[in-house]
Amino acid sequence: MSRVDKFNPLAKGSAIDQKRDALRGGTCGKAQIEEPKFDEIRRDAITFNLATDVLYPISAGKEASIFLALWKDHPIVLKAYRLWSTPHKLSTTKGHIRESSGKKTRWILGLIEDIAVAEFDVLQDCFNAGVRIPTPISRVANYLTMRFIGDGETPAPQLREVELDDPETVMNEIFDQYLKMYRDAHYTHGDLSAYNILWWKNHPWIIDVPQSETVNKWSDMNKVELFLRRDINNVLKYFTSYGIERDPEHILNVFLDAYIPSNLRNYRELRNEGLELT
Ligand SMILES: Nc1ncnc2c1ncn2[C@@H]1O[C@H](COP(=O)(O)OP(=O)(O)OP(=O)(O)O)[C@@H](O)[C@H]1O
Ligand SMILES: [Mg+2]
Asked: What is the CATH number of domain 3-150?
């Protein structure tokens, strides 16, 4: 289940809707994720002063669409998170209702907006910590803009699409960047892989951070460890195709030696005693 879907307040619909659905075999009452229309996105982006033009979609992922946009003559990236639409009249407490067109289609914006806010914050914090990620530019509602990584109007390829001359150096660079993100900005990425790293000007660029989790004194370090291990393994998996093998636990320990919130330093001992902090 995607993050957008996870937060869908009407994923199942009300009890009465579910019953009606079961009888009719329909989907009424459920909020559904809709592909936003290009013209509408372009109009919003220009109205919100996020871009002076939107040229074309670069990619349509599970949760968001990515567009090449312009700020005057400069190419930038516009990321538009999907909205939920519902055939029913909704209470405004379930989210901000953006548009009213009778009972047929309404949009729930509030919770989707939170995901765009989260991604923008992570990008900003990582940028401030010196991590090589696209510089965030602006955010309004479910839209955010960032630096375009690529040449002219051609986006940089994903790491999985390129043939590296010096894979070992690149791998070390990725882990250095991720260590900076974790140790200095205090985030786990949560979806790091050769899909979410772009290769541009001989350097890896980490992207796609809406599922990043902040690591602070209230964190569950067992979960943090899990996210870090999964990210490290995903990166290592890509480099096995170059015949590079590394011990993921060793890399994980480098991360944990570099930063654990001070009140959580003994989380492993507590775990051994069966006192899990969950
Ligand atoms: N700043 C950028 N510059 C250039 N291209 C980008 C940029 N951000 C994203 N892209 C392109 O768009 C693709 C999708 O971006 P991203 O992974 O952030 O979106 P997503 O909707 O979360 O995608 P998915 O669900 O497939 O992971 C990237 O793989 C990349 O090709
Ligand atoms: Mg992605």
From this structure: 3.30.200.20
